[in-house]
Amino acid sequence: MEIAVCRAADVAPLDEFIGSPGGASSRVRRFARQQAGRGTCLVAWIDSRPVGHAEVIWDGCAAPEVRAALPVCPELNGLGVRPPRLRSRGIGGALIRRAEELARERGRTVLGLGGAADDPRAAALYARLGYRPLTDYVDRWSYLDRDGSVHECVDLCTFLTKELPSGSLDVKGA
């Protein structure tokens, strides 16, 4: 497995093999944030096929509850592994560890992520990797479907944080 920063040429294969509720518009929006220097999109590859993705949003979570508790904290967002049969094989953990390494390289001392209340497998992964609850919040997001309809989504989440050790660590697969 290889973890790499997303390139423009990767956007179409991500949509083809992984997809997202927002389709291409979601991926294009994330890549545009990366091009503007506000985020870094990561892609996990196996045999030249994308199997996972995540984004580090450098200016943090937009939820007011999170900003009040920790105003300056990069957020790992949009973590996903597809197809589902590849979950629990270390891909998500490798993406998280690479995001942590990027944060350390930028001099950041903490990384946060939102854990949905209805995803115990993800919660177990985050706990194993050292993420601890900071605050509960309501994650509100929207996406434009292929027919042009906007869908508003609301998820009950807990923002979790991890203090990052200083210095560079050897990140296997990154």
Summarize the helices and strands and which ones pair or pack.
Elements: E1 2-5, H1 11-17, H2 23-35, E2 39-46, E3 49-57, H3 64-69, E4 75-81, H4 91-105, E5 110-116, H5 120-128, E6 132-144, E7 150-163
Parallel strand pairs: 4-5
Antiparallel strand pairs: 1-2, 2-3, 3-4, 5-7, 6-7
Helix pairs in contact: 1-2
Structure description:
The protein contains five helices and seven strands, in the order E-H-H-E-E-H-E-H-E-H-E-E. It has a single domain (2-163), classed as Gcn5-related N-acetyltransferase (GNAT) (Aminopeptidase, 3-Layer(aba) Sandwich). Helices cover 29% and strands 36% of the residues. The protein is an alpha+beta fold and 174 residues long.
Which fold name fills CATH's third level, the topology?
A: Aminopeptidase
Tell me the series of helices and strands, N- to C-terminal: EHHEEHEHEHEE
Biggest sheet architecture: 7 strands, mixed
- Percent helix among the residues? 25-40%
**What is the CATH first-level class name?**
Alpha Beta
What is the CATH architecture descriptor?
A: 3-Layer(aba) Sandwich
Low-confidence region ranges: 169-174
Domain module count: 1
> How many alpha or pi helices?
5
